[in-house]
Design goal:
alpha/beta, FAD/NAD(P)-binding domain, Enolase-like, domain 1, 3 domains, 7-stranded mixed beta sheet, 5-stranded parallel beta sheet, 32% helix, globular, binds flavin-adenine dinucleotide
Length: 455
């Protein structure tokens, strides 16, 4: 039996970040992974989807080239070549990560682990004991009752990432982040796309203004959507899939992508048997990611916090530092940046207007239209930056829509997390012409000294 300071079960964003930081702090670590180091994010999530979105952007640029005086023509997508590019990106990052884990002297075990006592994980008949156990087994793509994923006509994001053809038409069930990103990719690749969303808006967790901007932009791109209506049934035939909604409408397409959320991977892993408190499969933790069982911690998509890779990184680091006795500050989840990488992008940090009001703030808002920004005009993008602030107080939320606005989150998250007010930010000179100028202009306008803005 091998003994360690930490046994980490699951080598995705949460697990490997915890292992890397623990090793850096001088702790002995074993990292157990049944599939590939890097987990969902690297192999089936963040990285491959963003590669597809980039290929889509190039396709759209070639279609629009004439607008910029460039003679080019969009002919077609070569999906095997797109996949080779995407897989190349993933495989370079995978190699780099494997090298990193090795270089930190982390013991890496390939195999399927189960928690067999409060301090032991068993893999391939071997027992690994730790002063601490970190559970990081991640999440899987959910489906709905009556919807059988066959991997051909009815697929999840896992299948969508390996398609070697562009479907003529797709129905996307779920208008959240993953659904909107795939809708954007397939539209760019040339498919007819219809999104079905039960809630009244696309990306419904975002500020309503961002959802409305995205809906307008998607409509302009010819992406169809049905909002506020539920899925009823799907019928698969040899050539197509027919989807019926509760409002009686029917849609027929080559493919149905089910993007209705992700559930925790926690069944049959010994978690309940060891007395860990769980809720609908999620492991319940305190603000330092401790479970109710002393010495057992949980991070990433397995716990009911935002399902984002950088949240997993943050939680993994938090646990490593807590175990090492550094007493780190708990994570403020409001301050986590969020991006939907569709065209246009949707990016935010902090509270929506509704949330800010619910928490009792006296709220002021400012909308800065990207039409007034030179770089946005050059790029041919539209959108806005919306500030939510406490009256005469700090910025409470920043909500953006437009090309490349995800990159503006670096500044937005500093503003939010440092509790800056509009008057604090207004004097900072932003480089001209950049999209980041719009961030400066929005704060200048809210501070009562608009430059390139009305009012
Ligand atoms: C299509 C898609 C796009 C996404 N895009 C983004 C994005 O752009 N940005 C972003 O921040 N997030 C994105 N995400 C979310 C992100 O991928 C997850 O939040 C992140 O991967 C969670 O990390 P994790 O470590 O909790 O879990 P995972 O990454 O799921 O890792 C868990 C690991 O545990 C392993 N495991 C499970 N059970 C066992 C066992 N019994 N024994 C050993 N190993 C086991 C699994 O094989 C897996 O490798 C996306 C997700 C998807 C599906």
């Amino acid at each position: 039996m091998a003994e360690f300071d930490l046994v980490v079960l699951g080598g995705g964003s949460g697990g490997y970040a915890c292992a890397l930081r623990s090793a850096q702090l001088g702790l002995s670590v074993v990292l157990i992974e049944t599939d590939k180091l890097g987990g969902t994010c690297l192999h089936r999530g963040c990285i491959p989807t963003k590669a597809l979105l980039h290929a889509g952007e190039i396709a759209d640029n070639s279609r629009d080239a004439g607008r910029y005086g460039v003679n080019a023509q969009f002919l077609s997508m070569d999906m095997p070549a797109v996949n080779a590019y995407k897989d190349g990106v993933v495989s370079r990052l995978h190699k780099g990560l494997q090298g990193l884990v090795k270089s930190r002297n982390i013991t890496y075990v390939q195999g399927y682990g189960r928690l067999v006592s409060p301090n032991t994980v068993e893999v391939n008949g071997e027992k690994y004991t730790g002063k601490n156990i970190v559970l990081a087994t991640g999440s899987y793509a959910r489906t709905l009752p009556g919807l059988d994923i066959d991997g051909k006509r009815i697929i999840t994001s896992d299948h969508a990432l390996t398609l070697d053809y562009v479907p003529k038409s797709v129905i996307v069930l779920g208008g959240g982040v993953i659904g909107c990103e795939f809708a954007s990719v397939w539209k760019s690749f040339g498919a007819d796309v219809t999104i079905v969303e039960a809630l009244p808006h696309l990306v419904a967790l975002e500020d309503e203004s961002s959802s409305k901007h995205l809906e307008r932009a998607f409509r302009k791109r010819g992406i169809n959507f049905e909002l506020g209506t539920r899925f009823q049934a799907a019928l698969v035939t040899d050539e197509s899939v027919k989807v019926t909604l509760e409002n009686g409408k029917e849609f027929v397409a080559d493919l149905l992508l089910v993007a209705v959320g992700r559930g925790p991977v926690s069944a049959n892993l010994g978690y309940e048997e060891q007395g860990i408190t769980m809720d609908r499969g999620y492991i319940i933790v305190d603000n330092k990611c401790r479970t109710n069982v002393p010495g057992i911690w949980a991070v990433g998509d397995l716990i009911p916090t935002l399902q984002l890779a950088h949240v997993g990184f943050g939680e993994g680091i938090l646990v490593a530092e807590e175990i090492a006795g550094l007493n780190p500050r708990p994570i403020n989840y409001d301050g986590v940046p969020r991006v939907t990488y569709s065209d246009p992008e949707v990016a935010s940090v902090g509270l929506t207007t509704v949330q800010a009001k619910e928490r009792g703030y006296d709220v002021v808002e400012l909308n800065y239209d990207l039409a007034g920004n030179g770089k946005a005009q050059i790029l041919g993008t539209s959108g806005s930056i919306k500030l939510v602030a406490q009256k005469n107080g700090p910025i409470l939320g920043i909500h953006m829509v437009g090309a490349r606005v995800g990159e503006l989150l670096a500044e937005a998250q500093l503003i939010f997390n440092w509790e800056a007010s509009a008057a604090d930010v207004a004097p900072f000179i932003h480089a001209h012409p950049t999209l980041s100028e719009a961030m400066g202009e929005a704060h200048m306008a809210l501070a009562g000294k608009p430059l390139h803005a009305h009012g």
